[in-house]
Each structure stands twice: as C-alpha cells, then as structure tokens.
Design a protein that fits this description.
- The structure is a single chain.
- By secondary structure, the chain is of the alpha/beta class.
- It folds into two domains: 144 residues, Rossmann fold, CATH 3.40.50; 106 residues, Rossmann fold, CATH 3.40.50.1860.
- It is 44% helix and 16% strand.
- The protein contains eleven helices and ten strands.
- The strands form two sheets. A six-stranded parallel β-sheet has the order 4-3-1-2-9-10, sandwiched between helices. The protein has a four-stranded parallel β-sheet with strand order 6-5-7-8, with helices on both faces.
- Helix 9 links the parallel strand 7 and strand 8.
- The protein is globular, with a radius of gyration of 18 Å.
- The model has no long low-confidence stretch (mean pLDDT 96).
- Bound molecules: D-glutamic acid (DGL).
- GO terms for molecular function: glutamate racemase activity.
- Belongs to the aspartate/glutamate racemases family.
- Keywords: Cell shape, Cell wall biogenesis/degradation, Isomerase, Peptidoglycan synthesis.
- It catalyses: L-glutamate = D-glutamate.
C-alpha cells in the first residue's frame, strides 16, 4: 500500500500548482492527476453539480488503488469534501481552503484581499473561515469570473489576462490591502504577472505548500509514505488531451502523456 499512488484532481490545470508542491515535498510518491477541463469552471457551477463530479473522480481514484485523495481545488473542497469524507471514511482526504488565518496574521495594514471563485466566496465554509480567523481584520473579497478560462489556455502573459487581472486587483489596492490571498489553485500561475502589477510590499499567500505538508502528515500517521520508489506521474483530462499535453511543459515544467477521462 505504501507504493500505491496518490489521486489529485481539480476542475482544470489549477491543481498542477498543488501537484508541483506535492512532488517537491514527496518526490518518491507516484501521482495520478485528473483535470476536469470538460466541466470547467467549477466556480460558476452549482454545489450539487460539483459534488457529482467529485464523486465520479473519487470513484475513479478508488478503482486506481489510490492510497489518498487530494482535492486540489478550493471550489470543489467547499462543495464536496464533507460528502467525500462521509462516502470514504477510511480514506485520507486532503482539501484546501483560502489561507485566511495566515493572511490575518501577516497583514500590517489590517486589510486583506481574497481572490477566489464565486462558488468559494459564496460558500458557508468560507463564511465560517472568516468568522473564525478574520474578526480583527477587514477582508475584501473579489470573485474573478473569466480568469480561470484564460489561465487554461496556457498563455500566462496574454493581453486579455493582463487586463482582467488588473481589473480584479485594482479594487483591492484601492481598499488598502497589503496581503492578498490566492484562493483558487489556478492563481499561483499568475504570480509572475502579479509581480509586475503589484508593489513589492504586497504579500501573496497560497496554500499549495501547506496542503503538501498536510498530505505528508496524514500519510506518515498511517505509515503510508512511499519508500525508495521511482515516482511516476500520470495525467487524465475530460477536456482535450492534446491541449493539456501541449501546455504541461509550461505549468508542470515537464512533458507527459495525457489520457482522456471520459467519465
Ligand atoms: N481551481 C479551482 C479552485 O481552486 C477552481 C477553478 C474553477 O472555477 O473551475 O477554486
């Protein structure tokens, strides 16, 4: 079981930002990645629809013999993680949520911005996060429709992306945010562009590395960490395997074979 793979999924390529962190921290682990590009964006879909998609992918990873599951998607986590844990009580499942706690600790201006999908920002889980960790700071939330679709093209410096991102950042800067949470796994890929747009004093916070550490803890507790195994990463997409194959070198820094996920 230690040498079994870990299943990781997202609505698209965003979860690759998390997969990179997992691979860096746990290089001996074999990874399976599903990008549900045929149903993107989750951020504008109903929680019920997202729960159905997550159940399909979780069943697939079970059939593949995955020893753990990572929801590398904030929107999927708020909609479906409770459901999945109920369905598979013995399976280590790691979800992710916007890093409100570290952002509240990091801000000096007392104003924190959150870039995330509409679905994440409207969820009860996000409201509970704010109640719990953000009572002493002002939080400005910014839904970002359209951003994910532009990132999915793999062109991280397009004029359209530049323009849309700037329109989402400006209200946060105007409100005095000195700390910005990247609350969607697609957004870490915007760091180079954000670096050009933002004053260097602005702190950007994402949760990919923390998720990788949480996965490591869960596996270690169960004595499930791989030992001395030549790691292998496999990719599937419900969108176009050709397209994902083409942009993998940009987002994953390596090429890879991508198979069709037709479920
Ligand atoms: N990557 C996803 C997240 O972390 C959502 C993208 C989408 O809207 O599909 O929230």
């Amino acid at each position: 079981m230690r040498e079994a793979p870990i299943g990781v999924f997202d609505s698209g390529v965003g979860g690759l930002s998390v997969l990179k962190e997992i691979h860096q921290l746990l290089p001996n682990e074999s990874l399976l990645y599903v990008a549900d590009c045929g149903h993107i964006p989750y951020g504008e879909k109903s929680p019920e629809f997202i729960r159905q998609r997550c159940a399909v992918m979780a069943d697939f990873f079970q059939q593949q013999g995955a020893k753990a599951l990572v929801l590398a998607c904030n929107t999927a986590t708020v909609a479906a993680v409770a459901d999945l844990r109920q369905r598979y009580p013995a399976w280590p499942i790691v979800g992710m949520e916007p890093a409100v706690k570290p952002a509240a600790a990091a801000t000096r201006s007392g104003v924190v911005g959150v870039l995330a999908t509409t679905g994440t920002l409207q969820s009860a889980k996000f409201a509970a996060l704010l109640d719990r960790f953000a009572s002493d700071v002002r939080v400005i939330t910014q839904p970002c429709p359209g951003l994910v679709e532009l990132i999915e093209t793999g062109d991280l410096h397009s004029e359209a992306l530049n323009r849309l991102l700037r329109s989402y950042i400006e209200p946060l800067l105007a409100a005095g945010c000195d700390t910005i949470i990247l609350g969607c796994t697609h957004y870490p890929f915007l760091k180079p562009l954000l670096g050009q747009m933002l004053p260097s004093s602005i702190i950007l916070i994402d949760t990919g590395a923390a998720v990788a550490r949480q996965l490591q803890r869960l596996l270690a507790d169960r004595d499930l960490l791989a030992v001395g195994h030549a790691a292998d990463t496999q990719f599937w997409t419900s969108g176009s395997p050709e397209h994902l194959g083409k942009i993998l070198p940009v987002l994953w820094n390596k090429s890879g074979v991508v198979r069709s996920f037709a479920l």
